[in-house]
Amino acid sequence: MQFFEELRRIGPPVEGVYGNMDEPALKEALPKQRVVEVGDVRLAMVHDAGPRVRREARLAARFEDCAAVVYGHTHVPQVERFQHLWILNPGSPTDRRSSPVHTMLVLTVQGSRITPELVTL
Fold first, then answer.
1. What are 56-106's pLDDT values in tens digits?
2. What is the pTM of this model?
3. Spatial contact of 58 and 81, defined as CB atoms under 8 Å apart
4. Inter-residue contact 105 to 76 (CB < 8 Å)
5. Nearest by Cα to 97 from 68, 73, 75, 120
6. Cα-Cα end-to-end distance for the chain
């Protein structure tokens, strides 16, 4: 929780959702999912996007009014368009699990345009 509070103090606005490995205080402070507005777009955040089979279709139905959904949990990067929605997983800069490399995601929003860039570390 302390690190999240530090990010909020120094940053531009920081939003988040809790994950399965987060401490209880952070789980109490953050929602399971969140939708934020950035520029002219709505972005969804959720930690666990569910099973791999039909994941993209489920997310598109669940967040039909959003332009992108960012999820984590798997630590496997994904930058993919599905129907109206960008499906984005930044991977992990620290614990790559089954991914071959450490990664992060830079998401640029200009008006209603979203440009995701997966960065290999």
1. 999 999 999 999 999 999 999 999 999 999 999 999 999 888 888 999 999
2. 0.91
3. no
4. no
5. 75
6. 25
The tokens describing 38, both together, are: 């950035």
d(CA 57, CA 83): 8
| Residue numbers of the domain that contains 66 | 2-120
Provide the number of structural domains found in the chain.
1
Q: What are the backbone angles phi and psi of residue 98, rounded to the nearest 5°?
A: -90, 0
Q: Which two tokens stand for residue 25?
A: 């205080």
Q: Which two tokens stand for residue 70?
A: 């960012």
Total residues found in the chain within this entry: 121
Instruction: Please report, as a single letter, which amino acid is at residue 14.
Output: V
Find the CATH number of the domain harbouring 116. Answer: 3.60.21.10
Cα separation, 63 vs 84, in Å, equals 10
